[in-house]
Amino acid sequence: MSFWATWCDACAAELGALNRLSARAKASGGVVIGVDVGEPRAKAAAFAREHGLAYPQLVDENMKLADALGQKRLPATLVLDR
After folding, report:
1. Cα 11 to Cα 27: distance, rounded to the nearest angstrom
2. What is the value of pTM for the model shown?
3. Cα(19)–Cα(48) distance, rounded to whole angstroms?
4. Given 11, 47, 48, 82, which is the most exposed site by the fewest CB atoms within 10 A?
5. Taking the alpha carbons of 68, 38, 23, 20 in that order, is the dihedral positive or negative?
6. CA dist., res. 5 & res. 21, Å (int)
7. Are 1 and 33 in contact (CB under 8 A)?
8. Which residues, in sequence order, are bridge partners of residue 27?
9. Would you say residue 65 has pLDDT above 80?
């Protein structure tokens, strides 16, 4: 799970690596999920399309998920198991 925002340059810098990781993870049953935080759904969707994000994206407009997981900085990537 990778937390990001459209204004975050460091987040944009890791998108290619996350796309590649997603392709590799899929082969072994894993999944990469992006989570845009603090922004409107339409803005996040346009950014994801523009940057060719090939993995599922969630939008955490009110930062409820980020807050629940203690994520205060971007980018932030969490690795979760089953």
Report:
1. 24
2. 0.91
3. 11
4. 82
5. negative
6. 19
7. yes
8. none
9. yes
